[in-house]
Amino acid sequence: MQKPYFLYFILLFTTINTFGQNITSKELLDKAIAYHDPNNNWKTFNGRLNITMEIPKKSSRHSDIQINLPNDFFQVIATRDSSTTRMTIDKGICSYALNNSEKISEEDKKKYTLNCERANLYKNYYTYLYGLPMKLKDPGTLINSRVEDRTFKGKNYFVLKVTYDENVGSDIWYFYFNPKTFAMEIYQFYKTDECGYQKNDSGEYIILTKEKTINGIKMPKNRAWYYNKNDELLGTDILK
Fold first, then answer.
1. What does the CA dihedral 178, 184, 185, 191 come to, rounded to 10 degrees?
2. Which terminal Cβ of the chain has fewer Cβ within 10 Å, N or C?
3. Which helix (H) or strand (E) holds 213?
4. How do strand 61-68 and strand 46-54 relate by DSSP bridges?
5. For residue 88, what are the β-bridge partners?
6. Strand, helix or coil at 189?
7. Where are the domains of the chain?
8. Are 197 and 211 contacting, i.e. CB atoms less than 8 angstroms apart?
């Protein structure tokens, strides 16, 4: 009498573990992009993002970000407490200011980390994260051919594992997609050791909740950052 139930559970387990193999990594990425950017607007994105970063036990940082991909322009104006910094990359040319003045002492440059390396870091950071999942089509992005099935915080996901060419980056990333809507709901990264192996006690995971449509693109309204090693909350980016 129990044999049919036993076979049923074997079948159920097998179905769950092979569910993600009914879709290829390319198909999954294409469906995710169709969900977030149905009209292919990211390539010509020209818009502003107003973001508040809430950090535990620290004052919030408010950022006004301009991204103009066709004109190769990026600018972030960030205010925390009584200080405002501005970093600009205009067709590869960098400039920065403190409280609307480009005459900045060396001490303040160091204090507020005002330099071209930092400006380019912000440009890459914001255009990458708010350009996902479309940015996974960029050259140098290596997507594992296998779609994984994972459960995270009690919810099932399709997961893409992504690495990068050596000249692009060394971290290992995982992107979690809703298996019904194909919305991107989590991403996670780990550092690697000198041999290129994943360091499981490193990196962070980022939970995306709610959405805001900007220039026809569905972007995460809230991005909450946590350490992988202990689930400690680092901060939350809120798209206003």
1. 120
2. N
3. strand 204-214
4. antiparallel
5. 75, 95
6. strand
7. 23-42+133-240, 46-130
8. no
What radius of gyration do the chain's Cα atoms show? Answer: 21
Give the separation between CA 16 and CA 156, rounded to whole angstroms: 10
Longest Cα separation, the chain: 84
Q: Convert the pLDDT of each residue in 86-118 to its tens digit.
A: 999 999 999 999 999 999 999 999 999 999 999
What is the per-residue pLDDT across 115-172, written as a single tens digit (0 to 9) for each? 999 999 999 999 999 999 999 999 999 999 999 999 999 999 999 999 999 888 889 9
What is the SS3 assignment for 93? Answer: strand
CA–CA separation, 36 vs 104, rounded Å?
41
Give DSSP secondary structure letters for 29-52: HHHHHHHH-TT--GGG-EEEEEEE
Q: Rounded distance, CA 45 to CA 214, Å?
A: 9
pTM (two decimals): 0.88
